[in-house]
Structures are given as structure tokens and as C-alpha cells.
Amino acid sequence: MSSSGSRQTSGPPSPDPGPPASVPDYEERAAALLPRTIFEYYSGGAGDEWTLRENRAAFERWVLRPRVLVDVADRDPATTVLGSPVSFPVLVAPTAFQRMAHPDGELATARAAASAGTVMVLSTIASASMEDVAAEAPEGRRWFQLYIHRDRGLTADLVARAEAAGFGVLVLTVDTPLLGLRDRDTRNRFSLPPGIELANLARSLPEVEGSALFAYMAERHDPSVTWDDLEWVRTLSGLPLVLKGVVRADDAGRAVDAGVDGLVVSNHGGRQLDGTVAAIDALPEVVEAVAGRVEVLLDGGVRRGSDVLRALALGARAVLVGRPVLWGLAVAGEAGVRHVLDLLRAELDVAMAIAGCRAVGEVDGDLVARSPRRGDAQAR
After folding, report:
1. Is there a catalytic annotation at residue 102?
2. SS3 of residue 207 by DSSP
3. Is residue 237 one of the residues assigned to a domain?
4. The CATH number of the domain where 121 resides is what?
5. How many domains does the chain have?
């Protein structure tokens, strides 16, 4: 197509752009393929989206300090996360309604994560049921993300179904007493396309003014949940329990004292409260507070293998990626998700080699420092 937007009738054809070379390439192509309302639901954040942008910008405030003259001919990024072996320290974060990106949705993502040797965390508000997802990936490759509903019987039923289906870990999201105000979804009057539903809850979103998802969450989610409810959740299952959405040292310490098995430092991808601390900036104080008593994961803003290396150096056991998986799914289904994961693994491998690390266990805090040129005030 010419610069004026008219169709070309002569001249050489446009060059083949080739396969995407990075997560940002996948995002660009997904934006061109998906309907705008769906792309903006996936990509958007709360309010003015400052926190959404800050999740990425904050990585620039942490610089890597490579070691040289280290024999890195043999490297292995494999590790374990809550006892599950993974081929590299990148897990698939829980993201809702994946069938809006591709007809196979969560089923394709589960297959891709399993084939890449890592774990998928399935969202409560997935567009494929946990039983169908379980059929696509072996045990040890799937965890289940949980919200506490007003209907505690429903919550208990979800946990029982997840355990029966062989999901290995419960990931309780604790930063969503209410759904954040997402201006894009409100303007777009976001509602699910025909044929897509809340597969684990057997209910479609209502038709309402504004964001239908916000209306659903306001009706079904329990804003009265407190620390006392963690004990009740533990009685529902013997599965390990991870809290997702912790950004403070005091909350991290209290969670460990309450007996949780792991934490995910996360601000919900910038989708809950605009103005919240960036996930990577919150990571060090959480790691310090838990003092090795539980594993700490990071979710938010990871787009490159070098981002993964920074997170590991700051004490994360692994990271979770959400939007990059959605971009891969939108572009090429299962193959796209697998390629996104392969790209991140390849980038991490190169980053580890250049930084002088042969294994994840050799990544330590000495490899990273606050940038001397970009302070907090400058970044904002």
C-alpha cells in the first residue's frame, strides 16, 4: 500500500516482513489483527495508564553489571518453581478470555506452555474450562488462579474442581476487592463477543452500560475479604497457596506468617489502581521481607530476556508473562505462544552468557544496580 493509502497496481510486491523477532514485534502484529475493542481490553490499564507505562519504564532504572572472562560455553536456564521443574524461569500469567485472541484460546496456551517446559496459570475467568485445559497439558504444567467470590460455595467448588483436575498450585489474587476503573473498557462498552463466556462459572457477562466486566466483578466478587479468610482458603485444599498482588514488605511478611507458600509481586499489569508502584521496583523490599522463607515471583512489564535476568538478580525465583502470550496467541495460535516463549528463553540465554552466568543459580544481586542516570524523579 502506498503512503497515500491507495492500493499499488504496479511495482515490486511488499517485502515479506519475516517472523516476529521479539515480543514488541508480536504486539505490533496483534494490534493490526485484533478488533480494536479486544486489543484495548488486553493492552489497556487503569485510569491514565501511568502504572501500565511505569511497569516497563522501571526496568530502565535497573542496569546490569556483567562479569567478564567467565567460561559460559555450557549454559542451562532450567530451575524449579514451588517444586515444579521448568526449562527456564518464565511462567504464563493468568489472563482472561483468551478465545477473544484465537479460537483455541487457553487450550492452545496450555499446549504451548507444556511443550516449552513451563507452567501455565489458568484464570478463573478463562474462556475455556479448567477440565478442558487439564486435558491439554500434563500435571505439573498448570496452576489455577482463584478469586474469592461472595458465594463461598462457588469458591469452594472452584478449588475442588481445580484439585480434581490436577492443577498443582492455587494462585489467589488479592489485589482485586473491586475491579479497577479502566477508561478504555468503559469507552468501548466492553462485553464478550458472541460465543465466548466465563467457562469456569457457566455464565456470560451481562449487557450493561459501560464495562460489563466491571459490573460482573462488582456483583460477584467479595470486597470484604481479609487476612482471616486465608485460613479458610487453606482448609479447602492441600494444594500450595500463592498470593498474587503483593507490593509491600509488611504485607509480604504477614503473608509468610499466615503460611502461604509463595508470593507474586504484581500490580495486576497496571489494570487495578493507577499510580501504584512498578512491580520491579517493589520486588526488592518484598524479597528482603520474606528472607528466603518462600519463593517470590514477579509479574508485570517483562518483555525481554534481559528483563528476566534483572528480576532474577533482584531476588525473583521466576517471572510471569501475560500480554506477550496474548500477542503470540493472536498472531499464530499455539505456535505463536510457543515462539514468544522461545524468544524469551533465547534472549535470557544470551543475556546470561554475556553477564557471565552459566545457570540461574549464579544470578545474584551483584549483577544489577540502580541506574546512575535515571532516578525516580527523572523516570516520572
Report:
1. no
2. coil
3. yes
4. 3.20.20.70
5. 1
